[in-house]
User: What shape does this take?
Amino acid sequence: MRKSFIAGNWKMNLTVTQAVELAKSLVKSVKDCPHRVLIAPNFTCLDAVSKVLPGSPILLGAQNMAFAETGAYTGETSVLMLKDVGVQVVILGHSERRSIYNETDEIINKKVKLALTHGLEVILCVGETLEEREAGRAIEVVNAQIEAGLKDVTAEELSRVVIAYEPVWAIGTGKTATPQDAQEVHAAARAKVGELYCPKCAENLIIQYGGSMNAGNAKELMAMPDIDGGLIGGASLKAETFLPIVNYDK
Ligand code: PEP
Assistant: This one.
């Protein structure tokens, strides 16, 4: 039985004061939640937010990480630094990293392996563009990103990987994939992982949906058999919009 996993990606929003305030209000409300819940603040807020979370089931995530452990990489943040401030999970391969910062599958794979080697959990984001969807290539693109992102990741390490299917055209646009369209890609992604690893590995894999998920559509999306959670951007920035998603089944 897979445990639902709801994650908030705060992106480049919120000052330290605002992030701490939001984290505190989530901590108050997320107590006996049956799901896994994660918040991923900006780097400058991680340390302060980490101090709010002890005793809470809410996990601390980072939104990105360098592909190298240490050294002359101006502006980058190392896995060691993330662990130092209590980060447990790192989001890698987000479409904004792929499209704005030209992160390739090879770079993302390096990051995935480094994070796993250091004991972090990884949320590996994959998803097709509108052009690719319209050309009927959504599943092909997603499966290729999964295969490349997980290259040389062992079956043992895979148990610390979550895949987030985020159709690029649905991120921050207010457009959501229909539950059926999302389910189709999720099922194909799970089958791909079954092919690359083993049926049990595929069965245990958590696959989140991301792309304008909100209080109004979360329940319907989460009802799909292969949708195990959500990666939420815009709606994770306020307790009143994030908590109804966390509590989608109440
Ligand atoms: C995201 O950035 O991962 C995301 C899904 O954003 P939004 O919920 O705003 O579409």
